[in-house]
Specification:
alpha/beta, Cobalt-precorrin-4 Transmethylase, domain 1, Methyltransferase, Cobalt-precorrin-4 Transmethylase, Domain 2, six-stranded mixed beta sheet, 9 helices
Length: about 280
């Protein structure tokens, strides 16, 4: 395949590359090409290890993964790392789960590179916000059911200066709510949505490790989901989908078996390998 016409193969010092949500087959062609020729790969926790095998054997691999609540490297040090390697003339791929600009702090890294005068490009990735619901058989919009969706963080940290989410306004303004990083705050989120008028029987799906062999889904009503034992035990990474589209899963769950309401279903491993794609 010839290089993307919008990206002639000129050397770009840093590429902020979306690795997709888990299944390595969801990496973009452009991202893979850059990864294969990178001198340095700086990667996160949610990046599938099979993708790292695509880098040159002699490429420097730097893990800067962030598990929830336990940051391996502060963001400013990640920024400095990118600037330092690029300043030494190395082709750097900053490989991030999903899309770099969807709750990925890619914007901050781009700002740091721009401030340092380092050329960079952004390779968007398949975001978990849409791909994880899709692998659970949930279209985030559906004719006659949902004509809008919002992607929201459930992890608000005032200390970090993040803007707070107005759950009360979102409750009835948007048909489908997709919440990332929301497992811990699920009880508060559900309460806020119910208080603001969202129907108690609105279906909710929690999808853990979506698009991977370990994908697991729990479904329940908005007014009960936070108390279901199967939901309570789900640890991140989880995408929460709130809205009537969740019910479509009964017919559209194509990746493993469908979970019953309020039950977790360990879904069969069907994530194809990169080589198979
Ligand atoms: C820091 S955000 C990064 C989102 C990423 N940039 C994207 O576009 O998908 C991390 C959160 O994304 C969600 N997430 C990412 N990959 C996931 C997966 N395979 N299954 C379920 N949730 C996932 C979870 O909510 C997780 O806590």
């Amino acid at each position: 395949m010839s290089p993307h016409p919008a990206h002639p193969d000129e050397p770009v010092n840093v590429a902020l590359v979306g690795a997709g949500p888990g299944d390595p087959g969801l990496m973009t062609v452009r991202g893979l090409a850059l990864l294969r020729r990178a001198d340095v790969v700086v990667y996160d926790r949610l990046v599938d290890p099979r993708l790292l095998d695509e880098a040159r054997p002699d490429a420097i691999r730097v893990f800067v993964g962030k598990a929830s609540g336990a940051h391996t490297l502060p963001q400013r040090e990640i920024n400095a790392l990118l600037v330092r390697h690029a300043g030494r003339g190395r082709r750097v791929v900053r490989l991030k789960g999903g899309d770099p600009f969807v709750f990925g702090r890619g914007g901050e890294e781009a700002e740091a590179l721009a401030a340092a005068g380092i050329p960079f490009e952004v390779v968007p990735g398949v975001s978990s916000a849409v791909a994880v619901p899709a692998y659970a058989g949930i279209p985030v919009t559906h004719r006659g059911t949902a004509s809008s969706f919002a992607v929201v963080t459930g992890h608000e940290d005032e200390a970090k200066g993040e803007a707070s989410v107005d759950w009360a306004r979102l409750a009835t303004a948007v048909d489908t709510l997709v919440v990332l990083m929301g497992t811990r705050s699920l009880p508060q989120i559900a309460r806020a949505l119910l208080d603001a008028g969202r129907r108690p029987d609105t279906p909710v799906a929690l999808v853990r490790w979506g698009t991977t062999d370990a994908q697991e889904t729990v479904v329940g009503r908005l007014d009960e989901i936070a108390t279901l034992p199967a939901a309570v035990r789900l640890a991140p990474p989880v995408v929460i989908v709130i809205g009537d589209v969740v019910a479509l899963r009964e017919r559209l769950a194509w990746f493993g078996g469908a979970a019953g309401v309020g039950e977790a279903a360990a879904e069969s491993p069907r994530a194809p390998s990169l080589a198979a794609r």
